[in-house]
Design brief:
- Helix content is about 50%, strand content about 20%.
- It is α/β, with parallel strands linked by helices.
- The chain has a single domain (about 5-280), classed as TIM Barrel (Alpha-Beta Barrel).
- Helix 3 packs across helix 4, helix 5 packs parallel to helix 6 and helix 6 (about 110-125) packs parallel to helix 7 (about 155-165).
């Protein structure tokens, strides 16, 4: 089938009131787990490459693996740069075949965030690549990007309106109380804020830091306009838990296939559960 843009996938999600899972890709087993789950559930899916994933596997390897997976897949698959740090990096990803890029200017003042998004949108849209922006600052740690709780802030609905109008981004991550990484307490999402934002703009909205958020809160977020949901930490937990289990059962095991195979299966089950929860099963 080949890679499709995130904008194309999310247009259907918004029209039919479901969300699409976006899962971070770091190696072949994770990729196979994500695609295997999407095929089994007949669901569209978004592959994501974070800063850590690109540093670990290499941009060329990430892009090549994702392209092969998308070509073999019978469901829609997109490849998105997650939390892009610069215009230059976004362009490199576009040149390597990414079908979508996120440019995260949320740590800059509003005017700089708008400016960098405008540059990325101009370059991306010229070649049919979609762009995700971010407003507000999501706390926690994702790879080498860390935001202290005191520095996290929620998205301002009025700023969302002007930001979307000025940048022409295809979708927008809005900070409503989630955090990256493992939660140390119960996350409290600001659903009133989300509903207000949804009433003001038409573009699909994105929820970051969704690993560990309750199923009920996920459903409420989707009902209030979330169309893309990012999951990473729960895949890591499934992966590491399965490997630990195999080594505990047989400490002498040295065959990576017998360690990574069960880890792949564990991750695939997590992805399948998320796709069903998000409502994207049988939507491909």
């Amino acid at each position: 089938m080949g890679l499709v843009s995130v904008a194309e996938i999310l247009a259907d999600a918004k029209a039919r009131s479901y969300a699409v899972g976006a899962f971070n890709l770091n190696n072949m087993e994770i990729l196979q787990a994500i695609i295997g789950a999407a095929e089994a559930e007949r669901s569209p899916v978004i592959l994501q490459a974070s800063q850590g994933g690109i540093a670990y596997a290499g941009l060329e390897y990430i892009a090549a693996m994702a392209k092969v997976a998308a070509e073999k897949a019978t469901v829609p698959v997109a490849l998105n740069l997650d939390h892009g740090t610069s215009f230059e990096q976004a362009v490199r990803c576009i040149r390597h075949g990414f079908s979508a890029v996120m440019i995260d200017g949320s740590h800059h003042p509003y005017s700089e965030n708008v400016s960098i998004c405008q540059r990325v949108v101009a370059a991306a849209h010229a070649v049919g690549v979609s762009v995700e922006g971010e407003l507000g600052r999501i706390g926690g740690t994702e790879d080498d990007i860390s935001v202290d709780e005191k520095d996290a802030m929620l998205a301002d609905p009025d700023e969302v309106v002007s930001f979307v109008a000025e940048t022409d981004v295809d979708c927008l991550a809005v900070a409503i109380g989630t955090a990256h990484g493992v939660y140390h307490g119960e996350p409290k999402l600001d659903f009133e804020r989300l509903a207000k934002i949804r009433s003001l703009v038409e573009i699909p909205l994105v929820l970051h830091g969704a690993s560990g958020v309750s199923d009920e809160d996920i459903k409420q977020a989707i009902a209030r306009g979330i169309c893309k949901i990012n999951i990473d930490t729960e895949l890591r937990q499934a992966f590491s838990g399965a490997v630990r289990g195999e080594l505990a059962a047989d400490p002498s095991q040295i065959d990576p296939r017998k360690l990574l195979g069960p880890a792949r299966s564990a991750m695939e089950e997590v992805v399948r559960e998320k796709l069903r929860l998000f409502g994207s099963s049988q939507k491909a």
